[in-house]
Write a structure and sequence with these properties.
The complex is a heterodimer of chains A (262) and B (360). With 262 residues, chain A is of the alpha/beta class. Chain A folds into two domains: 172 residues, P-loop containing nucleotide triphosphate hydrolases (Rossmann fold, 3-Layer(aba) Sandwich), CATH 3.40.50; 73 residues, no CATH class. In chain A, strands 6-7-8-3-9-10 form a six-stranded mixed β-sheet, with helices on both faces. Chain A has a four-stranded antiparallel β-sheet with strand order 2-1-4-5, with helices on one face. Chain A is globular. Chain A starts with a strand and ends in a 6-residue tail after the last helix. In chain B, the strands form two sheets. In chain B, strands 1-4 form a two-stranded antiparallel sheet. A two-stranded antiparallel sheet of chain B has the order 2-3. Helices cover 70% and strands 3% of the residues of chain B. Chain B has 360 residues and is mostly helical. Chain B has one domain: ABC transporter involved in vitamin B12 uptake, BtuC, CATH 1.10.3470. The longest helix of chain B has 27 residues. Chain B is built from 15 helices and four strands. Classes of the chains: A alpha/beta (262), B mainly alpha (360).
């Protein structure tokens, strides 16, 4: 059974069909990419999985559990963590505090115990701190540990957001354009991290990405979307040379000339 | 500038980051404990007043500074704390029990009111809570069987384990009582900030959408924040009423909420220190004003002078120092620590990147 399954999911905003009868399945251990032109509904699919939107029809299951029965704040408890396209960090807090919020689903103590700072709270805090330190080590965030997000450059924020998602020890990681706005080197780093995340941490990755270079290097499977519907699915090479995909990106003329989406 | 070579996670978790900081606050505590020996009873009363304002301010700070929800209704919760505490004391409940229970009652009522109110955002929440503050005034008058309406109530003397404390006979004991409450509230506040709940507050303040994506139950977190905030403010209100000696519906009118909000903005939103600095301003400003008017013309009272000056101060702070007095102090400290390497733009606020508003 697949880890994440979408079965004929449709989402409409009034007359606009944002996602049209989409079915897809992500296997455990895969790196799966959603590609497509702007407005194709890629981020909307993420927001459906995060339960920010509720589909009109269809079902979403994660590891056999019905995601649609959950409230948005319960989804992370299944082991699904995500990043956002436009970086949604807690900008008045430090990097460390941001990463610690990622540990929220692992908290065990109650409000009263926390107010009194009982030994159990102290022990739990040490545990969280240790888990976060592992993420800091992986992503080389040591220099920024105590910096506030508000003063950090874009590239670092992007990495902190990845770190915050990783700190929750998810089974499935949703990355919304992990390489957008990053320099060539930063994109390289991102590629190695995604590789590490999959190989060493055993986390399944579902990502939206425009940089086909990155997609080609890290992804096992790609699904191309246009106007909310599935165009093609397969390995990166298959999808890149698929006539419908070329048409959606470059126009019909390019197909006859044997073009390829770069 | 001090650099910390950290070798242990506890160094990030404990209350004071190093021995130097600890000794500073220890010195402050010793100073606070020794204060009655140094100043006369009148100024000790003023100091007590500052501490009471600080308690109420800490309550609102938790909600506004930490969780990002504005409330103009906190005068209602001060009233609730005060009336419930005094009514219980009149029913011969021991003071300690009545006082703490008053906090709990205010907290629970606050949380219940929060459930519908916190569906509102920003200015709408401010208006809804302002309505609550105005309503509280009328409710106190309507419930005159218990509250004695506009005639008001006399505060009963405090009986602390058989030891009577009244404001006029034992100002020193009153001061220590307030100081004890301040220490308790501040400690609880700090403990919350270094625990998951405190981080959830900050998460809700900065980005509700990603707080949710990290598993924070936004509605529940806001409700808890409102509840704890009201409980603390209720304790402040109880002390304020008891300290005043007599109180009625006018004591807790909605202007008190606005003063409270102004106090935490002037002090520095989001900092515990801010509540204390703001309390000093709000408690001493009337005295300073009356001293100044005395200098210029004896006995001439200028109506509205106090609120006018308060308003001007608030506007000046919002325009020139949004981080408040504590923010100003942080800047001065950084300047001194880095001297001569501090740059003028170090605290300049960066324009944030586009945020996804549509997901609200």
């Amino acid at each position: 059974m697949s880890l994440l399954e979408l079965d004929s999911v449709t989402l409409k905003f009034g007359g606009l069909t944002a996602v049209n009868n989409l079915s897809m399945s992500v296997e455990e251990g895969q790196v799966f990419a959603l590609v497509g032109p702007n407005g194709a509904g890629k981020s909307t699919v993420f927001n459906l999985i995060s339960r920010f939107y509720t589909p009109v029809t269809g079902s979403i299951t994660f590891d056999g559990k019905d995601v649609l029965k959950m409230a948005p704040h319960e989804v992370p408890n299944l082991g699904i963590a995500r990043t956002f396209q436009n970086i949604e960090l807690f900008h008045q807090a430090t990097v460390l505090q941001n990463l610690l919020v990622g540990r929220h689903r692992h908290r065990k103590t109650n409000m009263i115990a926390q107010m009194l700072h009982l030994p159990s709270v102290r022990a739990e805090e040490r545990e969280h701190r240790h888990a976060v330190e592992e993420v800091i080590d992986l992503l080389d965030l040591q220099p920024y540990r105590n910096s506030r997000i508000a003063g950090l450059p874009y590239g670092v924020r992007k990495v902190v957001e990845l770190g915050r998602a990783l700190a929750s020890k998810p089974r499935l990681l949703l990355l919304d354009e992990p390489a957008s706005g990053l320099s060539v080197e930063e994109t390289q780093n991102m590629r190695w991290w995604i590789d590490d995340i999959r190989r060493h941490m055993g986390i399944t990755v579902l990502m939206v990405e425009h940089d086909m270079g990155l997609v080609g290097k890290v992804c096992d499977r790609v699904l191309a979307l246009a106007d909310g519907a599935k165009l093609a699915e397969g390995t990166p090479a298959e999808v890149q040379s698929h006539p419908k995909v070329i048409e959606a990106y470059l126009g019909t003329n390019a197909v006859s000339k044997g073009g390829k989406v770069a | 500038m001090r650099f910390h070579f950290k070798t242990d996670y506890d160094q990030d978790i404990r209350l004071f980051e190093d021995g130097w900081t600890f000794s500073l606050y220890a010195a402050l505590l010793v100073l606070a404990l020794a204060l009655p020996l140094m100043i006369d009873p009148f100024f000790l009363g003023e100091a007590t007043n500052v501490l009471i304002w600080a308690i109420a301010g800490l309550g609102l700070m938790l909600l506004t500074g930490q969780t990002g929800q504005v409330s103009l209704g906190h005068s209602a919760f001060m009233a609730l704390g005060c009336y419930s505490c005094v009514l219980m004391m009149e029913a011969n409940v021991p003071f300690v029990v009545a006082f703490l229970l008053a906090g709990v009652i205010t907290g629970v009522v606050g949380a219940l009111i929060a459930i519908p109110a916190l569906k509102l955002h920003g200015v709408y929440l401010a208006i809804a809570t302002l309505a609550l503050a105005i309503l509280a005034d009328d409710i106190i008058v309507l419930l005159k069987e218990w509250t004695d309406g506009v005639n008001g109530k006399m505060s009963p003397p405090i009986d602390l384990f058989g030891y009577e404390i009244s404001r006029w006979n034992n100002p020193i004991e009153w001061y220590y009582l307030t100081l004890a409450v301040v220490l308790m509230v501040t400690l609880f506040y700090r403990n919350l900030l270094r625990a998951p709940l405190g981080r959830a507050f900050a998460a809700v303040r900065d980005s509700e959408i990603s707080a949710q994506a990290m598993g924070v139950n936004v509605a529940q977190t806001k409700t808890i924040a409102f509840g704890i905030s009201c409980a603390i403010t209720g304790l402040g209100g109880a002390l304020m009423g008891l300290f005043a000696g007599a109180f009625n519906n006018e004591t807790f009118n909605f202007l008190l909420s606005i003063q409270l909000l102004m106090m935490i903005v002037v002090g520095g939103l989001g900092f515990i220190h801010g509540a204390f600095l703001g309390a000093v301003v709000i408690a001493f400003l009337p005295q300073v004003l009356s001293m100044t008017t005395d200098l210029f013309g004896r006995g001439v009272a200028i109506p509205g002078l106090e609120s006018g000056v308060f308003g001007v101060i608030l506007i000046l702070f919002i325009l020139f120092e949004p981080m408040g007095l504590y923010g100003r102090w942080l800047k001065i400290r950084t300047f001194l620590e880095l001297f001569p390497f501090a740059r003028k733009d170090m605290f300049k606020r960066q324009k944030s990147y586009l945020k996804t508003e549509r997901l609200r």
